[in-house]
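User: I'm curious whether this sequence folds into something compact or stays loose and floppy. Could you predict its structure so I can see for myself?
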Amino acid sequence: MPAPRTVLLTGAAGGLGTLMRGLLPAYGYELRLFDATPIKGEPDAITADLADKEALREAVRGVDAVIHLAGISLEASFDKILRANVEGTYNLYEAARAEGVRRTVFASSNHAVGFTPRPQGDDPLIPIDTPRRPDTYYGLSKCFGEDLAQLYWDLHGVETVSVRIGSCFMEPTSVRMLSIWLSPGDCARLLHAALTAESVGHSVVYGSSANTRLWWDLTSARALGYEPQDDSEQYAEKLVADQGELDPDRPDHAYLGGSFATDPPRWPH
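Assistant: Here's the prediction. I'll summarize afterward.
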């Protein structure tokens, strides 16, 4: 499909949103920014909460697509996750439906399958259809978002690519991240592919770079036209020297969700 011209970017003040604000315009997008936190230097950004249905209707009005990054990105109480990630995502989808927006990219997470054991040795890469095993209320909310996206495709014809993002930082900060790192450049490439691929219906993809230590299968992401360019291995020697290799007897090393799959969950992800 032709590249959407105007894209609503929710969560634009967050870490990932800030990175994408700098990278996505190079692909020809005009970004409309939305966040509960004011964005310095962006006087036209919409400052509103996902609970504000009227503000969301105005935000999506006239855009060609939505990238939904907003919400709580760490574990929190169920009530907080419910309001921000569950009800907030519903409000966003309902606004998009009402305004006729037909393409959304939903920031899902590896924590939707966080209690999946990580591959070891000659184990195959984890497929995209592996059963969901959320590791936190946060991960559970991402499962809800994927199901909501499926419902809005089946019921209303709103297409979505749900991207199970690994860890998107300038560089990986742990040995675990060597396997799930998504470079900012590759993240922009993946979001662009998700916005422009034809007939996605509701597609679920893993979001990571072409890492030497990759844990999951990127076939469905590549089917969108995503061609990752980066590899975390350039950071491996120093991280392994500082932290050691992963220990399969440690819960935070044994599962995809890392420290989220512990009691209580620990950060960062």
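Summary: The first strand starts at residue 6 and ends at 10. The mean pLDDT is 96.
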